[in-house]
Amino acid sequence: MRVLLVEDDDRLASALTTALTWHGHTVERAALAVDALRLAGGADFVLLDLGLPDMDGMDALRRVRRVSAVPIIVVTARTRERDVLRGLRSGADDYLVKPFRTAELMARMEAVVRRGTRPLPVPPPLVAVGDVRIDLARRRVAVAGRPVPLTRREFDLLALLAREPGVVRGREEILDAIWGDPLLSASRSLDVHVAGLRSKTGRPWLVVTLRGTGYRLGTAP
Question: If you count Cβ atoms within 10 Å of the first and of the last residue's Cβ in the chain, which end, N or C, has fewer?
């Protein structure tokens, strides 16, 4: 397989490259997230470190997963349960904590390949929640049959939540997807747009806030 190894530690990258090559894989290494995003499309498998110098690996993971179903195993020193859950929910097929044995990595890669490649989710053209109709194709929203004018970012935010109802989107993920900058998490831009959606639709339940986690599309009361 063509394996993209995203790792900024030269010594670890060299050791993993040797091991992967010995097992018959072709390895391409990226030390930066920007290079990983550029190269992921040509890989059969991605091994992704989270502690990258130019971007948090979790953000890189979400960006890759939005456009590709390539198998991804996170290999990282982050051991907190919260990080493991975030990694898996963000699209990783497996999560391996450093230090690890090469044999375990190879076994996990084989297990992921056996499970097969996940299909990319295909969003429905129309999402209905109570009396709210969200037309993703035409970028229109109506409540009780009445059109509701939204700003571009308000619609993009609602559409992101509506594409996979029930899926929780983290603040950084939303800011990265809509504003193109996860560092805006220190601002109130997202909160203002959520409030705008609730006010303009007259449906405060439409966007649910999960404190410390993110947002999801609500369900009609």
Answer: C
Under 8 Å between Cβ of 54 and 33 = yes
**Are 137 and 164 in a shared domain?**
yes
Number of domains in the chain: 2
Name the most confidently modeled range: 63-72, 122-131, 189-198: 189-198
Structural domain ending residue among the three candidates 115, 147, 164: 115
Do residues 99 and 150 share a domain?
no
- The phi and psi torsions of 105 (rounded to 5 degrees) equal -60, -45
**Would you say 77 and 87 are in contact if contact means Cβ atoms under 8 Å apart?**
no
Residue 25 burial (10 A CB sphere; 0-12, 13-18, 19+): middle
Nearest to 162 by CA among 203, 115, 211: 203
What element of type H or E holds 132?
strand 132-135
- Domain of 168, in residue numbers: 126-217
Enter the DSSP assignment of 214. Answer: E
Q: Which pair of tokens denotes residue 95?
A: 């999560």
Is pTM beyond 0.90? Reply is no
My answer on whether 98 and 149 are in the same domain is no
Q: What are phi and psi of 169, to 5 degrees?
A: -105, 125
